[in-house]
Amino acid sequence: MNSRRDFVKQLSAAALAAGAAPTVLSWAMPAQQSATLDIAGEDGMIVRSFRFIDLETPVEYFNTWLTPVPHFFVRNHMHEPSELDAQDWRLTVGGEIEKPLTLTLAELSKLEPHSVVNTLECAGNGRSLHRPQVPGVQWGKGAVSTARFSGPRLRDVLERVGVKPTAKHVMFRGLDEVPGKVPPFIRSVPIEKALDSDTLIATRMNGAPLTKHHGFPARAIVPGWVGAASCKWLTEIKVLDAEFVGNFMNPGYRFPNNPVKPGEAVKPEDTHEVTGLNVKSVISGPLDGASLRAGKVSVHGAAWAGEADIVKVEISTDSGVTWSAASLGHDQAHYAWRFWNY
Ligand code: MTE
User: Fold this and answer.
1) What is the pLDDT of residues 250-296, one digit of tens each?
2) Start and end residues for every CATH 3.90.420.10 domain found in the chain
3) 3-state SS assignment for residue 283
4) Closest C-alpha residue for ligand 1 atom 19
5) CB of 220 closer than 6 angstroms to any ligand 1 atom
């Protein structure tokens, strides 16, 4: 008899076999299958890509303010590092600085820790709902989750190495295994955000060491910004005199400067890089297609706004003619989602 585990393995093998030789664009092609995953600790997650591990949180799991790590969405552009040894791991800091530095995990752990509750959302969250369809992982509504991340402030490390006045951006490189000719996942953030007292080199998530899927042993956490800013398996920090030049800064992860019709072509020079998350709200219950008894129905969900706070959520039950205020949940933090109920 075939177990569910075997079934998922077969699906995975079929997806790998169907994968084209990697090209610059192949990382962005939509996944054909979606299924639930059967690997240790990740039960119930929706698999959006088998080639690299991309797992979506079903919206019915938006029921605890802090998402348990096994239910926290996973977004990988490349293969996860096959070997990660905390003893051998090193973080190098270089570029526009006075004193280049290499840190071991033990040295990093001696720096004063700081915690930030951050709602991490993939810039592509909700992509499958776009019309016309756009290439890329076809996320539903669950490429977003919230956790308490802890670790030293990036600022403390940058102060230790002495940032030169020429510093404009800070680049992060992870230990991803880059297949074929695919460009490596390297991005940079402006020096002001890097020096913000809430930007972290996180080593812990919800009180425990980071798991491999979420960037063990250390990752950047750039709170309130698109998830792509928060580089996992961090191994190199480089201070630059300009924005990093690479596929994941341009043409990747850019917004049109002015609103355009869905699907309309935009010239690269009329775009800017994505930074802070936009305001968004998701209904997590009742679920789409649910059968309900006639009468009063409670509607609940989560709303978030990147670097801004949610102060009000309104809901309409008559297709937008009238709006009523929902009650907001008690749990709140600056970069975190706010639950609501109506
Ligand atoms: N860091 C590395 N090194 N490689 C990646 O593919 N994906 C980014 C970011 N950091 C990525 C990365 C993207 S697009 C997102 S949305 C977040 O990690 C997802 O973090 P998570 O997998 O912990 O949810």
Assistant:
1) 999 999 999 999 889 999 999 999 999 999 999 999 999 999 999 99
2) 90-273
3) strand
4) 75
5) no
